[in-house]
């Protein structure tokens, strides 16, 4: 039995398995149009020790050079083009498309991707699009390269650097990233029904905290493993799992899970301990405590009253605790 809330153990098992693609400028590489970079402190100072990084720069790959004229997305004759910001007759659409297609092939096997926000190549969303006269349009979209990656690998955990400043979004990305790494590790060992059921067991409360709907649908997909080829079932399950984990885990949903887990200790705890635990969960629900508070108490009780099912739950540590830099959620 693996004790998944032993952070050291779970982090060690994940360390060699996470292949993270990143926009190269986030690594501090001076590849931007102006010869600068967009160094991402969280990536380099926190996440780097846990992942193997592969940098991608589609604009350099397209041969645009460093430095190079700034480019932007433009709607011209009802087509999306990538043109010079100062000189719209400079059109690099074809070169950027070709480079992005090549890099997409190289992205096979990645565990996740961290994009550079706002870039016409790497921005994940909300990248500005201009009309032929250079006026910004109301609608926005993803950059050329980011769109291709997300289209080709729709379940790949992706995020952009700016959104990592938001505690909820950062934790959501880390949760999906480390979960996907565990999935890839399971596939490397060889897919079979028993492995799949075991994987689901370990992620049940984690998925429930993000989405009760996807939690139930995932369970149904695994209900009859003989009905269809195991590869088809696994793909359906992964789709539900990753879609579910992308839903925001609110305080209300976490409270539901905490209450469920609290039920395991009903017969063990003294009345005063039960009341203290309930109070702590309610104070978390009201926003007066971070999630770590009831989680730590539950872990404490679990050490005293071990339970095989609870001890394998990744809910207690979906990713290494050292990466959780938030003190408020
Ligand atoms: S945002 Fe993308 S294309 Fe632009 S410099 Fe960074 S890696 Fe290169």
Please mark out the parts with pLDDT under 50 across 5 or more consecutive residues, or reply none: 1-16
Overall structural domain count: 2
Order of helices and strands: HEHEHEEHEEEHEHHHHHHHH
Structural class by helix and strand composition = alpha/beta
Q: What are the distinct ligands in this entry? A: iron/sulfur cluster
Total helical segments: 13
Average predicted local confidence, pLDDT: 94
How far the N terminus sits from the C terminus, by CA atoms, comes to: 29 Å
**Beta-strand residue fraction:** 5-15%
Helix content: 40-55%
Alpha carbon gyration radius? 22 Å
- Which shape, going by the Cα principal axes? elongated
Annotation, overall tally of beta strands: 8
Strand arrangement, largest sheet? 2-1-5-8
Major β-sheet profile: 4 strands, parallel
Describe the structure.
By secondary structure, the chain is of the alpha/beta class. The chain folds into two domains: 19-165, no CATH class; 167-329, no CATH class. It is built from 13 helices and eight strands. The protein has helices at residues 7-15, 41-47, 58-61, 93-106, 144-152, 167-189, 193-210, 212-221, 230-245, 251-262, 271-285, 292-304, 308-311, and strands at residues 19-23, 52-56, 71-76, 79-84, 112-115, 127-130, 136-141, 158-160. The strands form two sheets. The chain has a four-stranded parallel beta sheet. Strands 4-3-6-7 form a four-stranded mixed beta sheet, with no helix packed on it. Helix 4 packs parallel to helix 5. It is elongated and about 75 Å long. The two termini are 29 Å apart. Mean pLDDT is 94; it is low at 1-16. Iron/sulfur cluster binds next to helix 3.
């Amino acid at each position: 039995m693996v004790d998944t809330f032993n952070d050291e153990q779970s982090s060690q098992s994940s360390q060699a398995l996470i292949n993270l693609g990143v926009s190269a400028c986030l690594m501090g590489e001076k590849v931007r149009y102006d010869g600068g970079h967009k160094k991402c402190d969280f990536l380099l100072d926190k996440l780097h020790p846990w992942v193997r990084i592969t940098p991608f720069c589609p604009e350099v790959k397209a041969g645009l050079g460093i430095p190079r004229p700034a480019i932007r997305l433009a709607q011209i004759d009802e087509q999306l083009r990538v043109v010079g910001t100062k000189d719209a007759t400079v059109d690099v659409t074809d070169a950027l498309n070709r480079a992005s297609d090549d890099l997409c092939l190289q992205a096979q096997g990645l565990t996740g991707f961290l994009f550079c926000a706002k870039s016409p190549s790497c921005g994940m969303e909300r990248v500005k699009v201009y009309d032929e006269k250079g006026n910004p349009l109301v609608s926005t979209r993803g950059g050329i390269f980011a769109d291709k990656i997300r289209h080709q690998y729709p379940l790949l955990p992706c995020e952009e650097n700016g959104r990592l400043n938001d505690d909820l979004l950062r934790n959501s990305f880390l949760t999906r990233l480390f979960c996907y790494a565990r999935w890839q590790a399971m596939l490397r060992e060889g897919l079979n029904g028993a492995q799949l059921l075991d994987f689901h067991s370990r992620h049940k409360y984690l998925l429930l905290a993000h989405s009760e709907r996807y939690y139930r649908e995932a369970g149904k997909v695994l209900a009859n493993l003989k009905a269809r080829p195991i590869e088809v079932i696994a793909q359906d399950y992964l789709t539900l799992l990753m879609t579910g984990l992308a839903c925001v885990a609110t305080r209300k949903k976490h409270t539901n899970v905490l209450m469920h887990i609290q039920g395991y200790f009903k017969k063990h705890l003294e009345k005063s301990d039960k009341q203290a635990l309930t109070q702590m969960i309610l104070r978390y629900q009201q926003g007066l405590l971070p999630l770590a508070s009831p989680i730590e108490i539950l872990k404490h009780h679990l050490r005293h009253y071990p339970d095989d099912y609870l001890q394998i739950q990744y809910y207690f540590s979906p990713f290494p605790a050292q990466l959780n830099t938030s003190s408020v959620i």
